[in-house]
């Protein structure tokens, strides 16, 4: 088996229950997102694929080329840092910045619902491509490349 992570990181992942809980939480979120996508968003579509305005696989490929990451590279990325960064990115997404500035999203339920509906598909798309297993096992991003 090809080694992806250093022994210290592997030991931390196997012993730390909090990190395992983060992985489990991410897995449950991916399952819920896929169910939502199949049942509500893509319900009436007959296409096998859908399009998004941002080419995440291309961005990841470019980052790998810039940081000289190969298929044999080992990753040193801290899963807790990765989860916090991705969740922070997803929480900071805003399609309607004018509405966010004029009235806080916590104040208006209509604005909050419109914001959630407009970012839901993009958040699902982004979290699918930035999931931990893919970034660690397939893309082998290290901390510098991830940031």
Number of domains: 1
What proportion of the residues is helical, as a percent range? Answer: 55-70%
Molecular shape: globular
- Content of β-strand: under 5%
Oligomer: single chain
Query: Strand-and-helix sequence, N→C?
Result: HHHHHHHH
Extract low-pLDDT stretches: none
Which structural class should the secondary elements be placed in? mainly alpha
Number of strands: 0
State the end-to-end CA separation.
28 Å
On the 0 to 100 scale, the average pLDDT is 77
| Count of DSSP H/I helices | 8
**Over all CA atoms, what is the radius of gyration?**
18 Å
Can you summarize the main beta sheet?
none
Can you tell me about this structure?
It is a single chain. The protein is mainly α and 147 residues long. The chain has eight helices and no strands. The chain has helices at 7-15, 17-41, 56-66, 79-92, 97-102, 109-129, 132-138, 143-146. The relative contact order is 0.18. The mean pLDDT is 77.
Which helices and strands occur, and which strands form pairs?
Blueprint: H1 7-15, H2 17-41, H3 56-66, H4 79-92, H5 97-102, H6 109-129, H7 132-138, H8 143-146
Helix pairs in contact: 2-6
Give a short summary of the structure.
This protein has 147 residues and is an all-alpha fold. It has eight helices and no strands.
What are its keywords?
147 residues; mainly alpha
């Amino acid at each position: 088996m090809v080694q992806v992570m250093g022994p210290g990181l592997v030991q931390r992942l196997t012993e730390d229950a909090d990190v395992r809980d983060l992985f489990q939480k991410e897995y449950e979120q991916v399952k819920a997102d896929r169910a939502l996508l199949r049942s509500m968003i893509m319900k009436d579509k007959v296409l096998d694929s859908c399009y998004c305005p941002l080419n995440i696989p291309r961005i990841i490929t470019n980052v790998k080329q810039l940081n000289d990451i190969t298929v044999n590279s080992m990753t040193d990325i801290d899963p807790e840092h990765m989860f916090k960064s991705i969740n922070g990115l997803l929480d900071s997404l805003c399609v309607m910045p004018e509405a966010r500035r004029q009235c806080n999203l916590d104040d208006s339920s209509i604005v909050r619902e419109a914001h959630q509906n407009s970012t839901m598909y993009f958040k699902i798309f982004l979290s699918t491509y930035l999931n931990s297993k893919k970034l660690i096992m397939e893309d082998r991003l290290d901390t510098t490349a991830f940031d």
